[in-house]
Amino acid sequence: MPTNPPATLCLEVDWGSEKIQATNIARRLPVEPTDAQVAAVITAGKANPDAELPDGCWAAIARATPLPDALTHQLHPGAEGLSGLLMGENVEGATLQSAITRVLLSELIPGPQPRTGMEVTEVPDPQVHGLTRDNRPSAALQYRYQSFAHLRDHVWQTINATLILNSYATSILTRSVTRNLIIHPVEIVFDDGTEPFHALVVRDGITRLASAWAVLAGHGTDSGEVASLAREALLGGPSGTPGQARGRGLGQRLEEHRKQWRRTIRDEFDAELKGGAPGPRAAQIAQSYVVPAQIAVGVEGHGGRALSPEDVFDDAMRSVLASVHVEFKQWDDAAQNVEVITRALKRVIQLDDPRWSTAELQDVYGLAMGRIPVTALPEVFGGDPQPPGTALWRAVYLVNALTQPDLLDLLKDQAKAIKGGQRMSMKGFGDLLGPIVDLPWRSKKKLVTKQARNAWKNGGVLTTTITGEWHPAPTADFTTLVAPALAGDTDARCTLAVAGGVALISDKLLTRNVGSSLGIPKEKGGVPFRADVVKVVEGLSRQGNELGFWTLALAANTFREDALPQNAVTRHSLTAKEPTEPTEPPYVHFKVDLDAPDKIARNADGVPVLLYEWDVVAASDPDRAERTVLRTHTDNTAVLTPGTIAQPVEAASADGDEGSGAPGNGSLSASDAIPATFQFGPSKDGVGEPHPPLEAPAPAVEPWLPPSQRAAEHRKTLRLGVQAARDALDDLHALEPEVGSHTPIVPVDLLDDLHKLLIGIQTDVENLRRRITHSLDPEESDLEDPDDSEVPA
Fold first, then answer.
1. pLDDT tens by residue, 451-478
2. What residues contact 69, with CB distance under 8 A and at least 6 apart?
3. How far apart are CA 178 and CA 478, in angstroms?
């Protein structure tokens, strides 16, 4: 008797060098919900007393599920006022109601994540606002992007960054996504006036989402190409498919675009199954077409909470994520810290304490979250004079606002409640502040972000004076604050301490020094004595410490938010290559000489002397530093003697042999002074003429794209260029016998140049590989995605 074929099949799929057994491959893809089914979901959702969403959000949910009838059944209210089949989940301060269903992959937008949001990114997260109806919280949020291009870039960045960190593609190809993604609807609005629309965003399970796109893209696809595939499928072209469905809104055009995209995928899948032996493409599509989801549809705040209705759902959702990623599958420390401090501040705002202005605290919250730009600082804080609209002054005002004595105690109490701890020291509070303070310059100073945050964990600038009563003293020149600080002006002292301390910490000139920092040269990170970061800042800003005040003032004046100083990074070029593009002159922190007219130390040749952490620590306690004798056993013995802390050093060595290069008593090592041009490059000794550089065609990369997207294009160019070189070399080997011995196939001088060039490329590639491998080492970094239930098979 004829038998019906099984509903699913198993396929053996080639995935790179592996053979993957893909199981439970459906013979048919789910169909799109009909208009009648969408209407039934909306009607059932609006009738459920425990579900509260705008109509547009219900429509977004209904369009996204291939199981609309099952979802409608869940949404029907149960007897005696119960929520029927909805899943109730009690979290901190609220009860969430969620529906369990399956959702089309191409209807899910990745939402902002604390894990990636605290990383170095060039595309900012959207602003997040709660939604209410009749003063009742809705289980939805409003995401405010700057423009449609901002949304597209953010989606690309999130997918690309996630896949670089981790991928479960092999596991998903084997058995599809098996754990629910946590999802909720959003209203997406734009600052530039672009039409808003409703959609679904993923809050937990971003790695599973990105990995499903990687499965669909195929093995070997670059993370940037996967991100581009997802972005184009979700959002169409740069203007949201303007040529389609003229006269319809942006949301409708995007809906039609995604339907058309799925029709193309469905046709491809059907064509694969019509053949005698289904190919790997059928498995890729089937395993990634839909994903399981837990969709939040209702929220009810618990009594006695200080949160306003518009903040209830956001806080509850963040509580769900934090309960997993703070307590169990942890985010990195910075992501946890930002979650804790921003939620704590939001709770304090809701207390409506008469001791401070709620509106002003809202401004502080907006400044901390990046919602208020740095340029708006003068208008936000006002005063006469107004503070300059710079990132460093943002840090000064933010630290001052968040460390007011009464407010500080409440923030620490709320932070302890969120973290579940019993106590919080000032070092612990400094750890919370670090990733908020570095927001404006995080991407430009990423090479020293880890050391800077460790310094905040060591107390940062939170001295006992800073956590007392004081007010910032705005000025365009921090050196003008030195005189009043010496005269006892607390506001000037504290302003210098915070501004200069933040500058030194952010530029890696003040770190959490350890025992190994003793006994090594200052050029290699040595310090004269051990001291916590907060103690160094306290010493620098101690009443009467003129050397410390000038060190802080010059550091604050020199600080730039868009670059690192040359004396902050110890990594040097091994190939001594000239820069391919003109760059801005680097900036440098200089050592202080109180006897110099401009307070900058110079050597005998008049060249400014670099500032090192040694000098910063010594300036915090000159007397202790002068009593310290540091002996380093190298080719020569360097001795620190009294009188060398605040005085300019001499260029001659101990025995008077000028130019010997051997540092003696009071001598200046070669790395202490820098040429007037402040450039490090290959020396030209005049021996022979260098070969002119080869003109390589520049990659066609749009300059207005975010750096990560430009980097994806340059990766392609790098790989194609190296592969082209390999092919050319193979061709040369094949032609060598035909060319004969009368002339070399490649001239020797060209071979020498190629050899140097290839050694440089190999060195740069290896250094990059080591840095990336080190940053992704589980024992060295906590940046692995917490969704570790989907492990590669």
1. 898 999 999 999 999 999 999 999 999 9
2. 37, 40
3. 58
